[in-house]
Amino acid sequence: MAEGQNDRVAGIVGTEVEYGLSWSNRTPEDPERLSADLIGQVSEQYHAPVLWDYENEDPRHDARGFLAEGERENPDDADNRSLNKPLFNGGRLYVDGAHPEYSGPECASVRDVVRFEKAGDKMVSACQAAFSARQDGGPPLLVLKNNSDGKGNSWGYHENYLLPRSLPFDVLARNISSHLVTRVVFCGAGKLGSDQNPEESGRYFLSQRAEFFEIPIGLSTMVHRSVVNTRDEPHSERSLYRRFHVITGDSNLSEISTYLKVGTTLLVLRALEAGALEPPVFSDWVESFRRVGMDMSLQLPLGLENGKTMTALECQEVICSQVRRYLEREGMDAESSDIIGRWENVLVMLRRSSAGLARTVDWAIKWSVLSRYREKKGWELTDSRLKMLDFQYHDLRPDRGIFSMLENTGQVDRLVDPMEVEEALTHPPSETRAYFRGEMLRRFLTRVHAVSWSSVVVDPGEGPLKRLALGDPWKGTQKRVGALMGTSGSVGELLRALSPLPAGE
What we know:
Elements: E1 13-18, E2 20-22, H1 31-39, E3 51-52, E4 61-62, E5 66-67, H2 77-83, E6 84-86, E7 92-96, E8 99-103, H3 110-133, E9 142-144, E10 157-164, H4 169-182, H5 184-187, E11 191-192, E12 204-205, E13 213-218, E14 225-229, E15 241-246, H6 255-273, H7 285-293, E16 302-303, E17 309-310, H8 312-330, H9 334-352, H10 362-377, H11 384-393, H12 402-408, H13 418-424, H14 434-443, E18 448-452, E19 455-458, E20 466-469, H15 478-487, H16 491-498
Parallel strand pairs: 3-18, 13-14
Antiparallel strand pairs: 1-8, 1-10, 2-9, 4-5, 6-7, 7-8, 10-15, 11-12, 16-17, 18-19, 19-20
Helix pairs in contact: 3-6, 3-13, 4-6, 4-7, 4-8, 6-8, 6-9, 8-9, 10-11, 14-15
């Protein structure tokens, strides 16, 4: 085990954000090409012009033990460069189907997850500004950090948690399901109107994603979405680790909502790994998710396997209490203490009134804005102008997006300093293998041929290309390799310096 793991695996996290695009330009555009044009505007100070290494990538593997049908992605070099922008911060900006996507680097702290995701938003916003500046006064391309277009289409936000392979997947799925279903009460992004039921155009939803889920467990992320996703693509040593791929979350703009979304889920997984969690389990995961996602009252009863009922808020209180007991028994670091404290506080506030969360929780912040406009203008909830304000909340333009303007004027709470976000644009986190990936690009760019989450392919200057395996996400940290990288004048010197280290170091 790497130092700092405390004999546990659960601790490394990364997030992936798909962004929505809206362009009033009447010229027909292929969504993939439009997305590629957008990420093509990324500044050279942020990305490295190298290939993405697809060698070890195959999302067809299912955790239930089979390989789904389909072809592995393997674009030619020209498409590879167009669709992928490996980043100096250890992350990746790329095109995933019809959307631009930012994958943050692997992080060993939840606070880092927040600042690197925030850096991704800022990077994509800069791409939007550069793209629109090229349009000769035409309509700007709008980039939205949300999850639905109001017309029945949804795109994703994914979380990735490193777990031990020894934890049985069926145990994981059953015991995490109720948390994924009910955490919406503090990490939903909020949405006015249903995407699937026109009769619900005047209802305010806590979650943008919940109504798009159809099955309890499954592999697909685009159709037949499941509460527990079964993708088994660990991006690490398969015999030791699994990457738990969570697709139920909304894209958050509030740093506090992101922090609680990821932080509470990480603590739940740690308790589960230790065998210290016995959460309530719902009899119908999908129906419960949909009911929670539409319930501003937080009072709808949800059926449990034991025949009883429980509200989403009551479920969260039970889970939070069990995690608190686990942490008090095993000991907690400063971040775990902060997360559990904020978790308990937000649940207390939800018991009282969502108005108390109008600076911290996305759905409550947005509802507060919409309510003020509704009261001032005398609009009904079905008024299309309120729906436009809903979308404008997610606009990444700093001078037009409602959330951005609230943030810039101090009307919402923040977690990280803007200067920390600036640093995260160009420097990788120091406590995971992302450090090695990002620093290789920064220090030895001309010798790096390709990168991926689990490898760096280099040209030593003589002989064939060499693939450096990064099978352990806990290794390749600044503490372990920083000095070696700093004193190596070439890739060849670095390879010789690394060769005595244990495999995967």
